[in-house]
Design brief:
The protein has 155 residues and is an alpha+beta fold. It folds into three domains: 1-44, no CATH class; 49-83; 89-152, no CATH class. The chain has helices at residues 52-59, 63-83, 85-99; strands spanning 8-10, 13-15, 26-29, 35-38, 117-124, 127-135, 144-152. Strand 6 (127-135) and strand 7 (144-152) form a beta hairpin. Residues 23-34 have a biased composition (Polar residues). Residues 1-51 are annotated as: Disordered.
Length: 155
């Protein structure tokens, strides 16, 4: 019998088990029964289109708070999906604008960027006005800009 110990494949290399307590790409169990993949020292990258004003504050949070936020975000996503608030909200506003005789295309308005969205305000009971709204720069701290579309009749 030889004195060699059994080796285990980990991350494309062979370790006897003594080299590293938590080798790279090790799955560490978590109380939620999901494994967390640890890849050296780097945190996982955010989604490519995630805005910095969401990503930056999340990266500063401790793990337990991130789990609470993740639970809340999943519940919020379920709510929005069930109520169809995120998918059709702007489409409903666009149809309302067009029904009032206005264009719902930001390109038809001078100085309104493509990233603008429709907002409806009610400054007095019974009086509703539609506006294009957008940030002056794609930054959360940039001031809001707006341009009037026109008055809306009660519907």
């Amino acid at each position: 019998m030889s004195n060699t110990k059994a080796r285990t494949p980990i991350a494309g290399s062979w370790y006897s088990g003594r080299e590293l307590a938590n080798p790279p790409n090790t799955i560490i169990p978590h109380s939620s029964n999901r494994g967390i993949i640890m890849n050296g020292e780097s945190p996982p990258p955010p989604p490519e289109d995630a805005p910095a004003y969401v990503v930056d504050p999340l990266q500063r949070q401790p793990g337990d708070r991130l789990r609470e936020i993740a639970t809340w975000a999943a519940t919020l996503a379920d709510y929005k999906t069930a109520t169809d608030r995120d998918a059709n909200h702007q489409e409903v506003l666009e149809r309302r604008i067009e029904a009032a005789g206005y264009s719902a295309n930001p390109a038809d308005y001078e100085g309104v960027p493509d990233r603008a969205y429709i907002s409806i305000k009610e400054p007095q009971d019974g009086y509703k006005y539609a506006y294009w709204q957008w940030r002056s720069k794609p930054d959360v701290d940039a001031p809001d800009m707006n341009q009037a579309i026109g008055a809306l009749k009660d519907s």
